[in-house]
Every structure is written in structure tokens, then in C-alpha cells.
Amino acid sequence: MKLYILFFLLFSLLIHSCRTNPDKVIMKVPGPENHLMGQLFKFSPTNDPLFCNKDSIIEGDCFTGFIYFTPKGKVIFREDCVNDVTASYCIGTYKQDNQGIICNFSKMYTFDVEQEEINPDKGKMTVIDTFSLHLQNASCKGMYGIREKSEKNQYYYSLVEPADDDLSGFFMDEYRQISKLKSY
To answer: Which of 141, 157, 67, 150 is nearest to 103 (CA)?
Structure first.
């Protein structure tokens, strides 16, 4: 009889510990299940709060860029602006949950782009105040969105989608020239 009670208690403990709460599903990153590793996304301003209409992209000189999920489980964020005198790569970590992807950036690599001969490897790495970026799941597959609130309580949206081959080539060529980013 004691053996049955012990077996019942162990079985109950096993069942109880295997329960999942769908509201708290978190996938740890990095891991073998992580489909983001090695993926490059581009972001562009949009007026679509659902983040699915590619025709809603607002053309401009700023607020575009790349988000790269490295094969080593880190995330790199690069915002491009036409008149920038430096190029910056923010480096951080990320985790994915049922709402989207939360990125936390704590380092920045910068280099001068106003020199006659631009050398991306002649920059410097600095520790920055941590900032977060939340990529929200969009209602269409493979897309994300960024929703930011301004000081005037207005919302700004960015559409985040996989980068095409031409943009991937541009980003990766420059990224590979920076030896200080290879450990990420």
C-alpha cells in the first residue's frame, strides 16, 4: 500500500510540474528551437498600426534600419539616417514570448562615415544606458512591428520584415568588416 501511495505522489508531482500556463509561455534564447538566429530584418516607418500593409511604408531620410539576430544569440540594431556623421550598431540580448521579441541593448559600436576613406573597423565600442525595443507580433506571418510613444503622446509605428537579398548583402558586407562585432 505504501508503494502505491509513493507512486501516486510521484506521479502527481510529475503531472503538476509539467503543466504550462499559456499566458506565460517564454522561449529562452538562444536555443536549438530559435528560428531567429542568423536572420536579418529591416524596419521602416509606417502608418499601419497592424504592421501588415507593406504599401503603408512612409518614405523618408531617417527611421529606417536593420535588426540582426546573430548566430551566437545576440541582437544587433542599426538605424540609418541620410545625414548621420557616424554609423552605430547597438548590441544586446533578446528573448521571445507570446507577444513578440524583447530586445535589450547595452553596448554600441560607432565609426565615422564622413571620412574620405570609410573604414568600418576603425570605430569604438562603448557601454551605453540600456534601452529596450519591443518587436510586437503582427497579425501577418513573419512580420513584426515597433510602436513608440512620443513625448506628445502620439504613436509612431515601424514595420519590421525580413530584409531582401540586396539589403542583406549591404548590411552583411559592412558588418563582416568590423572585427569587434565578431564575438557577438
So the answer is: 67
CA–CA dist 156, 146 (Å, integer): 8
Rounded Cα distance between 11 and 56, Å, is: 54
Report the C-alpha gap between 134 and 73 in whole angstroms: 17
**Secondary structure element (H or E) that encloses residue 6, with its range:** helix 2-18
pLDDT tens digit string along 143-173? 888 887 777 766 777 888 888 887 788 889 8
Rounded Cα distance between 171 and 101, Å, is 21
Q: pLDDT band at 140, cuts 50/70/90?
A: confident
d(CA 136, CA 50): 10
Q: Provide the residue type at 22 as one letter.
A: P
The grid cell for 40 is: 536579418
- Secondary element (H or E) of residue 67: strand 64-69
User: Phi and psi of 14, rounded to 5°?
Assistant: -65, -45
Task: Kindly state the DSSP code that residue 178 receives in the 8-state scheme.
Answer: -
pTM: 0.72
Single-letter code of the amino acid located at 64: T
